[in-house]
Amino acid sequence: MPLADYVNALQRLRTDSGAAKYPASTLHRAPHKPLLLLSVLDLAARGELSTNFVSLTIDLGTLFADYWKLVMPPARRGNLALPFFHLKSDGFWHLVPQQGKEEAFAAIRQIAGMGQLRETTIGARLDAELRMLICIAETREQLRNALIEQYFHPDHHEALRQQAAINLGAFQYSETLLNQPRSGQALLAEQPSNSKQQVRRQGFRRAIVKIYDHRCVLCGLRLVTEEWKSVATAAHIKPWRIDHNDDPRNGLCLCGTCHTVFDLGLAGITEQYRVTLSRQISIDGNRAGYISTLENRELIMPDNKSYLPDLNALQWHLDEVFLR
Ligand SMILES: [Zn+2]
Questions:
Q1: Counting CB atoms within 10 angstroms of each CB, which of 73, 207, 217, 282 has the fewest?
Q2: What residue numbers bound the domain in which 97 lies?
């Protein structure tokens, strides 16, 4: 099929509609399928669509969630499983069942959530011709524009396009941090000033959660929601404001609670990579809960030892932030 046919197919997706269910920003139609497709275009822009197979990854879930936030009210939760499953009725998206789960897969009419999808499906194959069009920058942008213009209010077009640019910039920044951290600043300088901070934060977080596979280095927590949001955050050991250092060795993957505890100096990390707790966690009135069990616990280490946290930065944190 030529480009025009795929533009046509993408603009005629079967989507739910209703003014009571969906806001004006999405032209009162369900935005799930267009947002998933925008996310897939972003994977291609990164060079991550080397075959026509689209896997169910947390990265894809994060792209989808970031687009969702732009066009949907904060109280509405997006579920990636819905468009991933239901796009199969649009002709170019072919789900691949898990081996041995073909019958269970064939029986599904309504998908319950990501759990059911992952149990029965390994991913989806795109039409090979569509994948080719998506992998060429010029035609990819034509398909992107077709989606944005068809399914979203003009007030949101610029933000959706900007999000695509931020997603690409953040990906490139994260890969640079992982491979040549010293080049990070140069790459950042090329970003437009209005999105530079977003690219930097998103890119730094992506690098850190990738190194630690979304696990909190202090308590070991790894939690991903049904919507495929990970609770993992990326913390700087020596804060960004001090020496603008996004080197992954100046980063830690932390859950929300441990992030706060570390930033407040209630926990530190010794040169043996063990947790040390401030006496202040047990002052009158505090109930430190599981935090008090972390004393002397060995840090969750990155598989790749070249990303080990920088001992100088950890010592700086012990000297300047840690509450003795
Ligand atoms: Zn934690």
A1: 73
A2: 3-152
